[in-house]
Amino acid sequence: MLDFELLRAFVAVADCGGFHRAAEQLNLTQSTVSQQIKRLESETKRPLFRRTTRSVALTDDGEMLLGDARRLLQLEEAARHRLAAPRLSGSVRLGVVEEVAGGSLPSALGRFAAAHPGVKLEVQIGVSAPLIEQLNAGRLDVVFAKRPLGTSKGRLVWREALVWAAAETFDLVPGGPLPLALYRERSVSREAALSALQDSDLTWEIMYTSPSLTGLRAAALAGLAITPLPASAVIAGLRILGTAEGLPRLPDLEFALYEKTRPDKAAAALAAALLTLAHGSSRPTI
């Protein structure tokens, strides 16, 4: 068994290039660090450093040990954090829009479940407005959804473009009504698209409705209509249309996190975990 304190001293000497700086980093005396390295070399039965009056360098055996030592220390730190984390229990009811559920959400939920195995997650996928209504009615604890246009409620997680998407082979018919595929229910993207079209000189017709993102993309891929999608939801087989094709510009979408008024510890911990999905200008992969 390798002592983690000895491995920590070994990595510090390797990173700092000497015993004096390593001792300062570890808040130990130089003689203590030197003794720790000697103990580690005794345990491994290998010389780990080549020492001269001016420098300290890793031996070949030291180079081999360094990568393993880093990984072991990372695992040890992760284990300590997990053990130090408060033990949570209960259940959390999460509502999430499909655009997020098909992206980086599963990995975030997996990490949360591993850190808090005593918490049961109930996940409901839907459209933003009904999910937020269920939260307000007390039927959900946390909601990850598109923020309604013109509002500032919820905690912003990321912002991205809303675009017109159509099949790569789709052609607009000059003078004809614009065929649309929209969410069946009231939604942020539906309202944004209709508002933009009402302010334009275009004629349009809703040809297809669906309760899901999958259904809207299927209609667009089949060439039945164009549909407003988050830029990250445009998949192979679809292309983005814009002002060059005479279509009005759409507003950006804001994905936000909503919590009930007095969240319990489990719900607050899940919300904090989901906030880590914010990556500046990056977008979740759909």
List keywords for this structure.
alpha/beta; Arc Repressor Mutant, subunit A; D-Maltodextrin-Binding Protein, domain 2; 24% strand; disordered C terminus
CATH class descriptor of the largest domain: Alpha Beta
Classification by helices and strands = alpha/beta
**SSE series:** HHHEEHEHHEHEEEHEHEEEH
Quickly count the helices.
10
User: Over all CA atoms, what is the radius of gyration?
Assistant: 28 Å
CATH architecture of the largest domain: 3-Layer(aba) Sandwich
Summarize model confidence as the mean pLDDT.
89
Share in β-strands: 15-25%
Keywords: DNA-binding, Transcription, Transcription regulation
Protein name: Transcriptional regulator
Organism: Bradyrhizobium jicamae
Pfam family, one: LysR_substrate
